[in-house]
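A reminder from the course coordinator: this example appears on the midterm review sheet, so study it carefully.

Given structure:
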């Protein structure tokens, strides 16, 4: 993905964090687990095994058949036996040890074909498990490979360079049909860009001068010149990959329980197998060979291999599929927690609303052209979001710039400046002298959820401008669906009571108004004392503390660095409807994990009971309890990738 030094570092990090060894099976997870060599071993082993069975049961070449069986074990079981010897030295009884002991025992009591079947079938089960985990994690690898390793940079001339050597501030050129190598701002050209890998948007987004673009996205049809804002290794795509890699280490409560359960379960069943092998022959005079065989079957059933993979495969499948849909979840613990939500707390600006103030109403008491000239001249010097909205509207209306002196920003009130010897103010009620008519107009605007801005001198008001941050089209739909689930919804805002009440009424949501950032944190803390599961949804910038306090913090991302860093979940497209998808995915993930755990315990338990009564054979225990169960668990887990948003 990145060039030179940078190309290696993310991949090294990726390999260390993603491709590791299964604690219970000893499977070495590789990037291309289901490879040609493995397939040849499975096919070759099957052919040799069938030849051995024919020679043993239909000819007198029994000795040759045993040699062939040993050949099958040498072909597919070298790694298993090698791991078993290494683990035995450490007194660690994993699946490799149990299978090796079972196979050895079977040969010693004259059941070489069953000992071979145990190793061969375990090898297949091991392959299936490795394939499932690498397949589930493949989405992260695909993300890593999205951005091209070469960038076309404008220096003294246009040259192709390793993407790792491109610096912030340099201009890169991206032609139609090419992938954008790094994050940046469009400085020349326009085009539709497919940014689904980052935001999950299925429809390409039109990008023009001044718009932000992400590395790893596809420029579909136009010519673009882009000023680089994030160098290699620090792009939004890089951060997503790192978050997903780390997310798999943040285990859910269910995963931690299964890990703990497995540690006690395996030694317990091994002890039980030893009792089955020894007590009936020694105390009750049973056949030593028969009870040894039954004990070996119990050993094969013992290791919770399918049980151990039942939760991680489900979690990884969910994490990677949600990332494809533009929902970045930082770990199974949050995926599991979200379904328990009792209260959803929403920041207003930039979350329930678009975060883009627009002029909705203008009431002018004098010359409207003069009104906008004054607005244009004063607000172009200010940086407040309301000032910017007024300035853009004035610019759109063709307002003229007037000479301003003694300009001053009045914190929390507005701005002041002198034009042609008169001091004009733009802002809230202070310091204007209001009459009944102006009060009525302002009240009317505020009742509709608008912020009323006054323009004029202390004694003479030129006009009232109604500014409003539009409510997202999806906000009402999302809140209604959450309430239908029995979830309480609360809005937090710094707006005054009237504006907050108007928006809350429109959305059907409870609210707290006139809040400072620290007030939001206090309210979340108060809710945490009363409610077991609180989720906070904010824009990831001024809501960072409140997001961290909640059980789960969901940030409206849109590629925001702060959102990716602070929140537990990031909605990369700023689409609130993804919350309902997240709840659905959480419920489905828990449902699948419970199904897998129940199936593993039930089948393993049943086979263990049948082993005691001599009903099930050694090879059948492996075929059903390991291979069959692994296929069922894996197939069930991979269904999570099909959950629709």
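Designed residues:
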């Amino acid at each position: 993905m990145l060039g030179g030094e940078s190309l290696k570092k993310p991949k090294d990090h990726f390999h260390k964090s993603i491709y590791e060894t299964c604690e219970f099976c000893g499977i070495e997870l590789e990037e291309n687990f289901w490879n040609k060599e493995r397939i040849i071993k499975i096919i070759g082993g099957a052919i040799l095994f069938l030849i051995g069975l024919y020679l043993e049961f239909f000819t007198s070449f029994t000795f040759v058949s045993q040699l062939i069986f040993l050949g099958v074990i040498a072909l597919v079981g070298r790694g298993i036996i090698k791991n078993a010897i290494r683990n035995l030295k450490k007194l660690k009884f994993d699946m490799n040890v149990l299978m090796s002991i079972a196979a050895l025992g079977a040969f010693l009591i004259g059941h070489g074909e069953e000992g071979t079947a145990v190793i061969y079938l375990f090898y297949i089960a091991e392959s299936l498990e490795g394939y499932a985990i690498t397949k589930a994690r493949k989405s992260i690898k695909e993300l890593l490979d999205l951005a091209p390793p070469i960038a076309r940079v404008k220096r003294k001339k246009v040259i192709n360079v390793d993407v790792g050597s491109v610096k912030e501030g340099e201009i890169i050129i991206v032609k139609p049909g090419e992938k954008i190598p790094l994050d940046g701002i469009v400085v020349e050209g326009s085009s539709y860009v497919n940014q689904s890998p980052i935001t999950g948007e299925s429809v390409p987004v039109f990008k023009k001068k001044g718009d932000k673009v992400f590395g790893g996205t596809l420029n579909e049809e136009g010519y673009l010149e882009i000023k680089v804002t994030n160098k290699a290794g620090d792009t939004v795509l890089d951060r997503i990959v790192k978050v997903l890699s780390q997310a798999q280490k943040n285990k859910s409560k269910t995963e931690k329980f299964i890990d703990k359960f497995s540690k006690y379960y395996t030694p317990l069943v091994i002890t039980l197998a030893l009792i089955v092998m020894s007590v009936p022959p020694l105390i009750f005079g049973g056949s030593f060979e028969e009870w040894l065989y039954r004990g070996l079957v119990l050993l094969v059933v013992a290791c919770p291999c399918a049980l151990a993979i039942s939760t991680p495969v489900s979690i990884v499948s969910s994490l990677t599929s949600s990332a494809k849909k533009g929902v970045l979840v930082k770990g199974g613990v949050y995926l599991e927690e979200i379904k328990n939500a009792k209260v959803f707390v929403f920041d207003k600006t930039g979350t329930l609303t678009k975060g883009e103030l627009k002029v909705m109403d203008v009431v002018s008491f004098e010359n409207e052209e003069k009104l906008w000239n004054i607005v244009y001249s004063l607000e172009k010097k200010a940086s407040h979001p309301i000032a910017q909205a007024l300035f853009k509207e004035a610019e759109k209306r063709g307002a003229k710039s007037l000479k301003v002196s003694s300009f001053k920003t009045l914190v929390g009130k507005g701005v002041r400046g002198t034009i042609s010897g008169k001091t004009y103010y733009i802002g809230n009620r202070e310091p204007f002298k209001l009459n009944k008519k102006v009060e009525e107009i302002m009240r009317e605007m505020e009742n509709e959820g608008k912020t009323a801005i006054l323009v004029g001198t202390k004694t003479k008001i030129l006009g009232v401008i109604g500014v409003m941050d539009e409510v997202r089209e999806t906000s009402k739909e999302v809140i209604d669906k959450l309430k239908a689930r029995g979830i309480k919804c609360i809005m937090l805002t710094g707006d005054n009571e009237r504006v907050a009440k108007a928006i809350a009424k429109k959305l059907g949501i409870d609210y707290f108004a006139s809040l400072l950032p620290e007030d939001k944190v206090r309210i979340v803390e108060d809710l945490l004392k009363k409610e077991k599961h609180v989720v906070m949804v904010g824009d990831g910038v001024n809501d960072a503390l409140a997001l961290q306090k909640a059980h789960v913090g969901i940030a409206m991302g849109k590629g925001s660095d702060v959102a990716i860093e602070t929140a537990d979940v990031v909605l990369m497209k700023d689409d609130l409807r993804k919350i309902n998808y997240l709840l659905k995915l959480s419920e489905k993930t828990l449902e699948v994990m419970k199904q897998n755990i129940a199936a593993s315990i039930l089948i393993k338990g049943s086979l263990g009971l049948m082993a005691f009564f001599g009903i099930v054979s050694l090879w059948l225990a492996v075929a059903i309890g390991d291979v069959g169960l692994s296929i069922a668990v894996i197939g069930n887990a991979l269904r999570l990738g099909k959950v629709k948003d």
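DSSP finds 23 helices and 22 strands in the chain. The domain at 150-234 is CATH 2.70.150.10 (Calcium-transporting ATPase, cytoplasmic transduction domain A).
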